[in-house]
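# step 3/5: fold
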Amino acid sequence: MSVLAPVVAPGVVGRVNPVAKLLAALVLAVALLLSIDWVSAGVALALEVLLLPWAGLTARQLLRRTSPLWFAAPLSIVATVLYGRDEGAVLAQFWWISVTEGSVSLAFAIGLRILAVGIPGIVLLATTDPTDLADGLAQVLRLPARFVLGGLAGLRLVGLFADDWRQLALARRARGVADSGGPIGAVRRFGGQAFSLLVLSVRRGSKLATAMEAKGFGSDAPRTWARPSTVGPRDVVLVAIGVAVAAAAITAAVLAGTWEFVLA
């Protein structure tokens, strides 16, 4: 629950409109997905690291929030090195698995890209309250209120999944279901507990939908908002920084001759 909850960050980014954070993260992601090369991803990652002190997150908070990336990036590197495209000189051969210069280069490009795309998105959204984001999407981007409020309600329920999973595990253990069967039994128990969580989530979602409909959240009438969401100079600066980092990464890759447009 603490990992999913927004961080009250004292940094500059914590006071930026959530829509500006979302746009900055999207600009970086789109720019880095246009090519798979290590230069653009490395330059973007280096610039992002230099900007992290202004995010307002402590080192512990940063490591906890980005922990999935530190598992995903190495696994992607290893998988691509072993099974990526074979180009250039062969560096190693294990039966049908070959490691070449091309697979190694592609692996590090993908690993750096996972970090360069994931870190700014996680850091920016970690300092964003879901309600503030919903206010920005509805008032700044003019998205439909029904869509925004439905997404906000669903996002609020995500934080309850961990508590529900823990309570289900304790209840099953109290009934003596969770301590037998070996590895096969563990897989079977996991499937049963996951199905129970699915049923519980569907029931809670149905009750929430009915309650929201009864309170008029499904109306097409113009809606008022308790908290205004506006865009100021601080927000424009953050988006400009995102564009500048993306432009610097692309320019460096083009000058280094590693840029390869994925749609070409």
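# step 4/5: annotate
Residues 143-214 form one domain.
# step 5/5: archive (pending)
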